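dumping this here so i dont lose it
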């Protein structure tokens, strides 16, 4: 490699133990020049004009407490070698284990200062960049008995190593981890679910995810990412006395755009306006499982991307401007996007007289009346009798225990709930 001719300024940066410090920016002012120390801690400024300069480390990341010397003032009249520095910091380190097994994610407390550090996968912990003085180190995580209970330490001019804790009466925990790739390429941002426990994790830029601090037992791991098919769908994982791996492969799939318009019209189908702020549910025709929920925007549109398949959409809470609206649409996705335009005709709100009286009469009063052969309390014959127990009625109607053995149609259940939620209007 050819370097420019002229004066060179060079040196070496090491730590207190004599190890090279790599990747540290060295600055030469007022020239405003920077170079980075190499793997052996060496640095060189080339082609430096004659003059007076200040040479110092630029520890922007705050890795070290101090440098010896903190700055070198040099006068350039020729090559200036041996401009060496020693980087120093004071650390306290240790490890938590059962004697044989490292314990990750254990919280360690340092006082004074109230600093907390977590042990890594190998059970080690570290408090960095401390000043000389007296400290107490103890285990902060609850439920762990350790020996010794704590360390009372004096931190002088050298790091303190080997402040280890041995845990007893402690059930080791384990992790489930894995990678998700599209062929050889990692797939970040995948949502990974763990059951039981309901934990969530996300793959990082390398496609890696992990669930920590798991007790021995059986688990189910699943993953999902819009626009990808994950294989397998789920994985059963059993932890006995070691961590387990659950990898997935991800395959891009075609998604189609679905736009559902919600438009309010009068009884003559004359458009009265859009229906913003309405929740539209999209469900799989074959399984009835809800696959997406979208809220309409200011133009009454709900938009979603779905893979090929057969679906239907509906309003789960069909109340807009005090008026109840119902209806669903089926559609198929296979090769093209879909736009669904649904007109909701403005009709009378759900009231006792327009719907509830007839519904209660046909569904409930066969049993809930005093003169029935198999009378059941409370009586549900009049408006006042129903309103008095409307919350209990709604709960039983919604959970399909009334009428017993003969649940109401879903539309009737929704209409009754709308009537209850909207103030039990009489007429």
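and the seq i came up w/
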């Amino acid at each position: 490699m050819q370097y420019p001719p002229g004066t060179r300024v060079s040196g070496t940066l090491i730590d207190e133990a004599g190890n090279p410090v790599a990747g540290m920016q060295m600055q030469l002012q007022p020239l405003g020049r920077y170079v980075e120390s190499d793997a052996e801690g060496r640095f060189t400024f080339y082609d430096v004009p004659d003059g007076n300069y200040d040479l110092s480390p630029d520890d922007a990341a705050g890795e070290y407490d101090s440098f010896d010397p903190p700055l070198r003032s040099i006068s350039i009249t020729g090559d200036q070698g041996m401009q060496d520095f020693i980087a120093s910091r004071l650390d306290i380190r240790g490890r938590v284990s059962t004697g044989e097994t490292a314990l990750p994610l254990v919280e360690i407390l340092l006082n004074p200062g109230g600093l907390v550090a977590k042990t890594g996968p190998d059970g080690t912990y570290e408090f960095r960049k401390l000043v000389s003085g007296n400290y107490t180190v103890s285990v902060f995580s609850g439920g762990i008995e350790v020996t010794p209970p704590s360390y009372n330490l004096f931190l002088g001019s050298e790091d303190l190593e080997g402040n280890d804790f041995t845990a007893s009466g402690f059930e080791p925990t384990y992790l489930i981890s894995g990678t998700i790739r599209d062929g050889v390429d990692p797939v970040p941002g995948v949502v990974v679910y763990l059951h039981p426990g309901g934990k969530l994790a996300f793959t990082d830029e390398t496609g890696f995810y992990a669930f920590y601090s798991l007790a021995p037992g059986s688990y189910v791991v699943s993953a999902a990412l819009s626009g990808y098919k994950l294989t397998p769908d789920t994985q059963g994982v059993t932890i006995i006395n070691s961590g387990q791996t659950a990898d997935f492969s991800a395959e891009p799939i075609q998604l189609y755009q679905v736009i559902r318009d919600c438009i309010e019209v009068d009884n003559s189908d004359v458009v009265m306006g859009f229906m913003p702020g309405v929740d539209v549910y999209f469900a799989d025709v074959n399984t009835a499982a809800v696959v997406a929920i979208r809220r309409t925007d200011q133009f009454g549109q709900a938009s979603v991307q779905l893979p090929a398949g057969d679906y239907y959409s509906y309003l789960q809470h069909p109340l807009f401007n005090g008026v109840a609206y119902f209806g669903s649409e089926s559609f198929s996705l296979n090769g093209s996007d879909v736009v669904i335009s649904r007109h909701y005709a403005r009709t009378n709100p759900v009231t006792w007289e327009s719907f509830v009286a007839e519904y209660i009469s046909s569904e409930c009063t066969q049993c809930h009346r005093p003169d029935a052969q198999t009378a059941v309390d409370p009586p549900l014959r009049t408006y006042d009798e129903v309103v008095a127990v409307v919350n209990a009625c709604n709960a039983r109607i919604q959970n399909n225990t009334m009428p017993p053995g003969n649940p109401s149609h879903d539309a009737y259940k929704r209409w009754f709930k709308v009537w209850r939620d909207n103030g039990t209007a009489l007429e």
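The first helix runs from residue 352 to 363.
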